[in-house]
Design goal:
Elements lengths: L1 H13 L12 E3 L2 E3 L9 E4 L19 H12 L1 H15 L2 H10 L3 E7 L20 H16 L3 E8 L24 H18 L5 E5 L24 H15 L6 E5 L1 H4 L13 E7 L10 H10 L3 E7 L3 H13 L3 E5 L2 E2 L6 E2 L4 H12 L6 H14 L6 E2 L1 H8 L14 E2 L3 E4 L12 E2 L7 H4 L18 E3 L7 E3 L7 E8 L3 E11 L5 E6 L2 E8 L5 E15 L2 E11 L3 E8 L1
Parallel strand pairs: 3-4, 3-10, 4-5, 5-6, 6-7, 7-8, 8-9, 9-10, 11-12, 14-19
Antiparallel strand pairs: 1-2, 12-13, 15-25, 16-19, 17-18, 19-24, 20-23, 20-25, 21-22, 21-24
Helix pairs in contact: 2-3, 3-12, 6-7, 10-13, 11-12
């Protein structure tokens, strides 16, 4: 509760300069997004990836990982009735009012909804009458509920057509594309259905001020001029079909809705605007997407140039899938340049997002089968694993990664460190190595490998190589012997971890450090409130990097009350599990 209150307090302070609550319809005011009072609105949001549209990687499925193929393969294992039950449960559980309430309390002021068209209308090849549109209540009802929760929290909802009829690119997972059927780009029927869907949405929500904008086509990635050598359109020079479709969608929206912002995205996953300009509407925002590159001014120079030339606001519609260091640096860069943002995603199976959906043994077996083949799992086990996964997608059953939230909301604007867990030190108290302080690299901890910049460097790096428990640069592994225990590994020279503790009673303590090493090279230095109290103490060789044994550092004087203990790797090469304080 204290953590939530502190995050909310930080957010409220930021509202003094950037208004985040609804004051009527949002609109483009020159290079800014403003409310009806003309006040600057900086959108801080998250996309609900994985809810209406499951991308396989979010489910740990990496073979035939478009949603339609995942569903077909599940049906082959347990039949259509039980498959429908799973998808109904998934849609009901994944995103609820408690999720929106929590996002608001953490400090976010907007949500991007990635929509799958097939929840709103039939595919063109399933229409009873060719050229007509059958409207499905399911998608609209889900959107209505989400909008009501946003309104209750005074948050903006941005509608994003993530999966368009036929699919808008060659990255087939993004839009759940079936390559055996006509593309959006080579099918007039698919294009007309896309246009009609946006007109239908605009008719329904034209008077809703908490609908922040219409993001009309997510991440087009198609090579119109040279599809063989430029299949994702990153080198496209004209983008004529993309511009034409976006102009037609805008025209259809404006026939019924004059008020809402229309957000457009370039080709090449949102970033290639060649041939798109000049803009054709006065109330437009330029979106771009940013992944795995440096967080420097040069990384956003192209979109700032477009903002200046078109005199239109810019919004970072999608980013994430990296470390806390990357998140903090990116948000600081964006907000310095008055660019609002929407992170990706809120939750999935994986730790680098605010919520982690837990897996289960039956689901793990299904994933192994879907990825690698082998023995077919029993239909009852498949059903049990999937329904349990749907239950685990509820917020109260997820792992909430408050280090990720802190990195996004507080750390971009503060060097202060805070305890990860409350640690009251009494005789024989234990502080686990992985529970080092919340804060920036260089302030709460120091690690030499902190984020993935492979788009800029051409080389992937891991941050936390274990991709578990926390999302900083610190490498963490799961203890194979002790259930739900973790330790820090891959410790390199000069790296350190800081722990803010509250000592109950002043005195002289022995520190028992639980470590493992298959060499005798490691050395640890201890600092308390910046003062060195033990220097380069040798870490014992336990004969195996997973065989942990405690060793003692004696005669450490601790005052009563709060203090910061730093464990520094004078020489690395060991693994670190916990410190025990013995008075």
């Amino acid at each position: 509760m204290n953590f939530t209150k502190s995050i909310l307090y930080t957010f409220l302070l930021s509202l003094l300069s950037f208004t985040g609550f609804s004051q009527g319809f949002l609109k483009a005011g020159g290079k800014k997004i403003v409310n009806e009072k003309g006040e600057n609105v900086l959108l801080r949001g998250i996309g609900l990836g994985g809810w209406m549209l499951q991308e396989g990687y979010m489910l740990k499925i990496n073979k035939e990982s478009q949603q339609y193929r995942i569903r077909e393969r599940i049906e082959e294992l347990m039949g259509p009735k039980q498959t429908q039950q799973f998808y109904d449960a998934w849609l009901a559980n994944h995103t609820r009012k408690i999720d929106v309430d929590s996002m608001k309390s953490w400090g976010f002021n907007s949500i991007r909804l990635p929509m799958h068209y097939n929840l709103y209308t039939l595919p063109v090849d399933q229409e009873p009458v060719a050229g007509q549109n059958t409207w499905l209540e399911k998608g609209f009802a889900l959107t209505d509920s989400l909008l009501a929760w946003c309104k209750a929290n005074k948050m903006y909802l941005i509608l994003d057509l993530h999966a368009a009829p036929g699919g808008q690119g060659n990255d087939v997972n993004i839009a759940d594309r079936d390559p055996s059927k006509p593309y959006l780009w080579d099918s007039e029927a698919n294009q007309q259905k896309t246009i009609a869907l946006w007109k239908k949405l605009a008719e329904r929500y034209k008077n809703e001020a908490y609908i922040g904008a219409y993001d009309i086509l997510n991440e087009p990635n198609y090579g119109f001029e040279n599809p063989n050598e430029d299949k994702n359109g990153t080198k496209e020079k004209t983008n004529a079909p993309l511009r034409k479709l976006m102009v037609e969608i805008t025209k259809a929206i404006r026939e019924v809705d004059q008020k809402h912002i229309i957000i457009i995205e370039g080709n090449g996953w949102g970033n290639n605007y060649n041939g798109i300009f000049p803009l054709w509407d006065k109330n437009m925002v330029l979106s771009y997407h940013k992944y795995w590159n440096y967080n420097d001014q040069n990384s956003i120079a192209h979109i700032l140039k477009a903002r200046d030339e078109q005199n239109a606001p810019v919004w970072l519609g999608e980013t994430g899938e990296n470390s806390n260091v990357w998140f903090t640096d990116a948000i600081r860069l964006l907000e310095k340049n008055n660019i609002g943002w929407s992170w990706w995603p809120l939750k999935k199976i994986g730790s680098n997002n605010p919520m982690e959906i837990k897996s289960n043994p039956n689901y793990d077996a299904l994933v192994r089968y879907m990825n690698n083949g082998g023995n077919k799992p029993k239909d009852s086990n498949v059903y049990s694993g999937l329904m349990e996964l749907a239950i685990y997608s509820k917020l109260e059953n997820t792992i909430i990664h408050r280090d990720v939230i802190d990195a996004m909301i507080r750390q971009p604007f503060s060097n202060e460190t805070r305890p990860f867990k409350a640690s009251v030190i009494k005789d024989k108290s234990i502080v686990y190595a992985v529970d080092y302080d919340l804060g920036k690299n260089g302030f709460a901890y120091f690690d030499t490998d902190t984020a993935d910049y492979h788009v800029s460097t051409g080389k992937r790096s891991a941050g936390n190589r274990g991709r578990i428990y926390r999302n900083d640069g610190v490498d963490i592994a799961k203890d194979s012997i002790r259930y739900e225990k973790y330790y820090v590994n891959h410790i390199e020279n000069g790296e350190w971890l800081q722990y803010t503790v509250n000592v109950a009673q002043r005195g002289t303590y022995t520190l028992k450090l639980n470590t493992a090493a298959d060499n005798a090279d490691g050395k640890i230095t201890i600092l308390i409130d910046g003062k060195e109290v033990a220097k380069a103490v040798a870490v014992p060789d336990t004969g195996n990097a997973k065989k942990f044994m405690p060793f003692e550092i004696k005669n450490i004087a601790l005052k009563a009350g709060r203090q910061k203990i730093k464990v520094l790797a004078a020489t690395g090469g060991y693994n670190f599990s916990y410190i025990q304080f013995v008075k």
